[in-house]
Amino acid sequence: MIAVAILAHPQVALFEMACAAELFALPRPEFENWYQTDVVSFESSAINSLAGLVLQTKTVSSLEDYDVLIVPSWPTSAGHVSAALEYQVKQFAQQGKRILSFCSGAFLLAELGLLSQRKATTHWRYEEAFRSRFPDVEYQNNVLYVFDGTIGCSAGSAAGLDLGLAVIRSDFGYQVANQVAKRLVVSSHRLGGQSQFVEAPILAVPNQFSHAIEWAQRNITQAIHVGQLAQKANMSRRTFDRKFRSSFDLSPKEWLIQQRIERAKGLLESGDTAIEVLASQSGFDNAITMRHHFRRLVGVSPKQYRAQFGAT
């Protein structure tokens, strides 16, 4: 069982705290194995939070009993970090245990030097302040989340859900992550970066571009060409490519590949279909192409993935 600590403090953001609790602390009897999670604090009393809400947490002096630490948020201005908290979080990192930050939680990790020479991100509105205070961090400015070794950082508030689902997918597999996402009524794997959410107007009615994307998702096992998508969106190929990249920070071709890889992961987990057949069922021309992209995007071969996450 994986033991998780969610760090609470007097200025903790309630939405990010709730996201962490929903992902990792909610009982899930439908799964044989799940996380054992505590909301912890180094404070000796209850925490007064936003709107007069009081948080009763588990007071700890050590993080030794935990495997994963989640920092839901942290003040973005330079402030005092208690000696106990600093020591415990640094020791946690030195032991090679996983640390996840949601939104402004990256400020604590950077303050403690844990993100030096590492890739990290935070909410787009804090980018300038973060870069200024921590120039030694390899800031990623258009991602929903990023991993560097055992440390993962999410961007804006809801991107903590994306990071958490990625961790669940890594720990328990694609199908379990999908079930958790379905219960949350969110996508199990959003593509693209923060740019698609920054100052982007909401369309009053669905348009042909969104219909083309939905059509591609429904028909991902078929041979789909980018020109075909452009036609369905009633756009020139050049305009469609530009619109697609501004929306997803990906080329249409790369997006199609990633969608097919997600399909392949689900098939690998749910059965023992031959790789050659599975490649076709995922929309790839052949198994060689699928293996290439699978290893490039997932980091292991389809065979290794099935051995780790397959139903047997």
From TrEMBL:
A GO molecular function held by the record: sequence-specific DNA binding
PROSITE patterns associated with the record: HTH_ARAC_FAMILY_2
Species for this entry: Vibrio gelatinilyticus
Alphabetized UniProt keyword annotations: Transcription, Transcription regulation
Keyword Transcription in record: yes
Lineage: Bacteria, Pseudomonadati, Pseudomonadota, Gammaproteobacteria, Vibrionales
Stated name of the protein: Helix-turn-helix domain-containing protein
PANTHER family the record matches: ARAC-FAMILY TRANSCRIPTIONAL REGULATOR (PTHR43130), HTH-TYPE TRANSCRIPTIONAL REGULATOR RV1931C (PTHR43130:SF3)
InterPro entries: Class_I_gatase-like, DJ-1/PfpI, Homeodomain-like_sf, HTH_AraC, INH-QAR
Domain of life: Bacteria
One Pfam assignment: DJ-1_PfpI
Domain HTH araC/xylS-type stretches: 210-308
Gene3D superfamilies hit by this protein: 3.40.50.880, Homeodomain-like (1.10.10.60)
rRNA processing listed as a keyword: no
SMART domains: HTH_ARAC (SM00342)
